[in-house]
Amino acid sequence: MTHATAMTEPPVREPLIRLRNVSKSYSTGGRRFIAVSNVTMDVREGDMVALVGPSGCGKTTVLKILAGLHDADEGEVTIGSGRSAFTPGRDVGMVFQQALLLKWRTILENVMLPAEILDLPRQAAEARARELIRMVGLAGFEDKYPYELSGGMQQRAAIARALVHDPKLILMDEPFGALDALTRERMNLEMLRIWRESGKTILFVTHSIQEAVFLGARCAVLTAGPARMADYFDIDLPADRGLDIKTSDTFGHYVKRIYGLLGFD
Asked: Is 183 part of a structural domain of the chain?
């Protein structure tokens, strides 16, 4: 007697973000400047997506729209999978190029700041902050002040701060752009680990094509302003990749593809 074994397909992840034909413009000096034009993309729950494009092409504008800081002029912006409500102030964490830690607060106090602003229960928030500080590799530095930490360590604290209120979405605007090359490589490795451990959906802007390929599960390439979507594709590399992946043919293929989309043939 034989028994048939059914193969279970992995669950399909719903998009957390849906942009449909989104456009945004600004008035400067009496003239209208189009920053983003007709951008369409989905970001699946749990993905880390790289947003790449020339300087001034509107990448940060896309982040500001998703953060609820700006409204789109045209198109549809849907955030949330349908299983739960989405509140921009509560469900978004932001990481900027500079850590922007408050110099008069300790690292623990800086990490806890969003929880304080949102009036979350202090005991639970402090426990989560301490766990996140451990996760980003800063255990033992809770009572230090920002000036006592290196740039890379400050940025780790900023990442912990963005996670402390358990947001659904993390937006990162060139988070490692101000770091030296070696520290940036280390932070790339740390970011992959943090992403795997946290399971968060992350959309990050970068001008580094290699960083986009190394960190991204997907990559969105925007044209020179006004930003339009040149291409949006999966990056088929192991989630637990190390720096040695950068010497692989597959990695080189994706790097070359992005260069081509940006006009470097």
From this structure: yes
- Residue pLDDT, tens place only, 78-130: 887 654 445 656 789 999 989 999 999 999 999 999 999 999 999 999 999 99
List the single range of 20-34, 102-116, 205-219 with lowest mean pLDDT: 20-34
Residues 82 and 187 placed together within one structural domain of the fold:
yes
129 shares its domain with 177: no
* Number of domains the chain is built from: 2
H, E, C per residue of the chain: CCCCCCCCCCCCCCEEEEEEEEEEEEEECCEEEEEEEEEEEEEECCCEEEEECCCCCCHHHHHHHHCCCCCCCEEEEEECCCCCCCCHHHHEEEECCCCCCCCCCCHHHHHCHHHHHCCCCHHHHHHHHHHHHHHCCCCCCCCCCHHHCCHHHHHHHHHHHHHCCCCCEEEEECCCCCCCHHHHHHHHHHHHHHHHHHCCEEEEECCCHHHHHHHCCEEEEECCCCECEEEEEECCCCCCCCHHHHHCHHHHHHHHHHHHHCCCC
For residue 79, what is the domain's CATH number? 3.40.50.300
Same domain, 44 and 145: no
